[in-house]
């Protein structure tokens, strides 16, 4: 997989195999693992910041992005991205 860039749009499938376009909002490397924060393109186009859902994905060993599986890892990643988003404001 090529290096993902902030602003890039790609398609992901949810657990029901429904495809959704997401845009990369930020990237971080935490303890040697790459993570991205994404949001649905449809939500971003509505320009209502209060209703934007942000999701975190991690780069797995195969070079594909996958969901974060534990609450502990989610909290660690969420906290790190909160710092990034606060700096951008």
From TrEMBL:
The protein's matches in InterPro entries, at most eight in alphabetical order, are given as: UPF0473
What the entry lists under Pfam families is as follows: DUF1292
Instruction: State the name under which the record lists this protein.
Output: DUF1292 domain-containing protein
């Amino acid at each position: 997989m090529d290096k993902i860039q902030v602003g890039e749009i790609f398609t992901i499938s949810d657990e029901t195999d429904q495809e959704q376009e997401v845009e990369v909002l930020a990237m971080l490397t935490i303890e040697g693992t790459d993570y991205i924060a994404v949001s649905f393109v449809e939500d971003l186009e509505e320009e209502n910041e209060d209703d934007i859902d942000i999701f975190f994905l991690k780069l797995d060993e195969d070079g594909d992005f996958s969901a974060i599986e534990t609450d502990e890892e989610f909290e660690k990643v969420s906290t790190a991205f909160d710092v990034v988003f606060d700096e951008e404001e």
